[in-house]
Write a structure and sequence with these properties.
Length: 179
């Protein structure tokens, strides 16, 4: 697993296959232009990271995951997620932005977990549920094709959040200045 930890770092233009846990960003920085194939979760972040133009395929659980450890303000944009075992995007943190991503062949496109996140201009194809546990105040516009249920609510009164299988936070830290 590649890790961006205590220092700001960049993971850029790599091909990573059968990683186990994927790429983890624990501090601000960027994950961009990577191809990640066959991991448990493709990209996991817990800080105000910028995650753009990645391709995540064949992940066991989720393509991109936001951990609730201060990941407020992250931008996840123009990524391609395909064949995620459970879902494309799992948002455990409020105030993140998910824009212009393409999610194909998953059970859930975007899991809101009742969080106030920005989800707009995404394309969700071949999913059982497009948007799950969406707050009543959400008003974003996305595109859907072959999606059985576009939107599930269920957030009134503090509905319990589903659990998600997340990888342990272990790996080789990315050193400052390395890519």
């Amino acid at each position: 697993m590649a890790t961006v930890g205590a220092v700001q770092g960049t993971v850029k233009n790599n091909y990573m296959a059968s990683l186990g846990a994927g790429v983890y960003a624990g501090s601000s920085g960027s994950i961009t232009g990577n191809v990640i194939d066959g991991s448990i979760n493709g990209i996991v972040f817990s800080a105000a990271a910028t995650i753009t133009d990645n391709t995540v395929t064949n992940s066991g659980y989720w393509g991109i995951v936001s951990y609730a450890y201060g990941g407020v303000g992250a931008t996840v944009q123009s990524n391609r997620i395909a064949n995620a075992g459970h879902g494309g995007i799992y948002a455990e943190e409020a105030n993140d932005t998910y824009k212009n991503n393409t999610i194909t062949h998953s059970v859930i496109g975007v899991e809101f977990n009742c969080n106030a996140i920005t989800v707009t201009s995404n394309t969700i194809n071949d999913a059982s549920i497009g948007l799950d546990q969406v707050p009543a105040t959400y008003s974003g516009i996305n595109s859907y094709s072959n999606v059985a249920t576009i939107r599930n609510g269920g957030c009134a009164g503090g509905a319990p959040r589903p659990t998600v299988a997340l990888p342990p936070k272990v790996g080789v830290p990315l050193r400052a200045g390395s890519q």
